[in-house]
Amino acid sequence: MTINFPKLPDQVPHRGTEKSRQFFKKLYLAQGWRFEGEFPNIPKAVAIVSPHTSNFDGLYAFLAMLGIGLKVTIFGKDSLFKPPFDKLFKWIGVIPVQRDSPHGLTHQIVHVIQSTDKIWIAIAPEGTRNQAEKIKSGFYHIAVGANIPIVMFAFDYDHKVIRCLGIFHPTGDYDADLAQIFNHYEGNFSPKNPTRLAKPLQKLFKKR
After folding, report:
1. 204 contacts 194 by C-beta, under 8 angstroms
2. How far is CA 195 from the centre of its chain?
3. Where are the domains positioned within the chain?
4. Interval 6-49: pLDDT, tens
5. CA–CA gap between residue 13 and residue 45 (Å, rounded)
6. Residue 29 exposed, middle or buried by CB count within 10 Å (0-12, 13-18, 19+)
7. Which of 11, 13, 61, 73 could lock onto 118 through a cystine, CB 3.0 to 4.6 A?
8. 3-state DSSP assignment of residue 14
């Protein structure tokens, strides 16, 4: 079977070298994982990744990201940016934000997006590895505030696949749009720890 491992289109933010991408690609594939789907050729996006039930989610996503050469940005508390970890966070792609800022976290992130030519923001909508009662709406408000699309990714542990489920353009109607996003995920994911699966995702979880 030919293993599909996508090449990034030119408009998507890139990172790494050919040598580093080959190294991390081999490391990712050596875990028995593969990738399905293609990346939309857009310079800015909010990339959501679900489900999030384990620390392994970050490991596989990080290896895939480095293997593909995708540069993503993650936001973290500014208090974390202290030596010697500040350089590591910057290399990973973490940008510090003030969570107690009077302007609000979403406002800060939208400002960063608007001041950059190319940027993909990576967010786990559940916001926790434990069983979430609901999906946090922050990713959606960031996309709407910055007027950029949402690119959907899913973990499928049963088949060891990370899938790109395509692109979604938010309309401003959160409830209706979330239902449409759920339609893309239905039957296309499986969690590492099913008991930790967010409640809104439980009814979408179908064995493939």
Report:
1. no
2. 21
3. 18-202
4. 889 999 999 999 999 999 999 999 999 999 999 999 999 999 99
5. 10
6. middle
7. 13
8. strand
Residue 125 is encoded by which pair of tokens?
């909508």
Q: What angle in degrees, to the nearest 10, is found between the helix axes of 138-146 and 174-185?
A: 110
Provide the terminal-to-terminal Cα distance of the chain, rounded to the nearest Å: 19
> Tokens 């302007």 label which residue?
103
In whole angstroms, give the CA distance from residue 202 to residue 208. Answer: 15
Residue 36 backbone dihedrals phi, psi, to 5 degrees: -125, 140
β 161-168/94-97 pair status: unpaired
Give me 108's structure tokens: 């800060």
For 47, which DSSP code?
Answer: E
How big is the chain, counted in residues?
Answer: 208
- Tens digit of each residue's pLDDT (9 = 90 or more) over 80-92: 556 665 665 566 6
